[in-house]
Design brief:
The protein is α/β, with parallel strands linked by helices and about 140 residues long. The protein has a single domain (about 25-135), classed as Sandwich (Hypothetical Protein Aq_1857, Chain: A), CATH 2.60.300. It contains two helices and ten strands. A seven-stranded mixed sheet has the order 1-5-6-3-4-10-9. β9 and β10 form a beta hairpin. The radius of gyration is 15 Å and the shape is globular. It starts with about 20 loop residues before the first strand and ends with a strand.
Length: about 140
């Protein structure tokens, strides 16, 4: 029985000896702010996933046609793009990567509009609720 490949940490690491079933991207795809990194680190620790990641996906729906879906995951799956940023890992599928390239992930504790927020330079329109966009 073979073991699943280990997930590289967000810290610098040496090149793997065998090819990974996912790609490793950089902050040009998605950059994380300090606030988002701190909150994500806390959430992953609470779930017992210190080496886990935040999966960011773009799905159809919402007022403007597209919306973000975020989940805490153990790590990337084949074909994903793993982006280490500010000490945390972000996982993005190739289709979603087309929509989020150049984005910034932030976090706010604001009572009404708090949570993780994506600032996306590819979005040409946003709905009034701030939860969906069109590209």
């Amino acid at each position: 029985m073979s073991e699943a490949p280990s997930i590289p940490s967000a810290a610098p690491f040496s090149a793997p000896t065998s090819p990974l079933p996912w790609k490793v991207g950089n902050e040009k795809l998605c950059r994380v702010t300090d606030a988002a990194s701190n909150r994500l680190t806390s959430l992953l620790a609470k779930q017992g996933r210190p080496n886990g990641a935040l999966r960011v996906a773009v799905i159809g729906g919402g007022c403007s046609g597209l919306q973000y879906k975020m989940d805490l995951v153990d790590g990337p799956v084949p074909r994903d793009i793993l982006v280490p940023s500010k000490g945390v890992n972000i996982v993005i599928d190739p289709k979603s990567a087309l929509f989020v390239s150049g984005s910034e992930l932030d976090y706010s504790d604001d009572l009404q509009k708090g949570g993780f927020k994506v600032t996306n330079p590819n979005a040409v329109a946003h709905c009034s609720c701030g939860e969906s966009f069109s590209a």
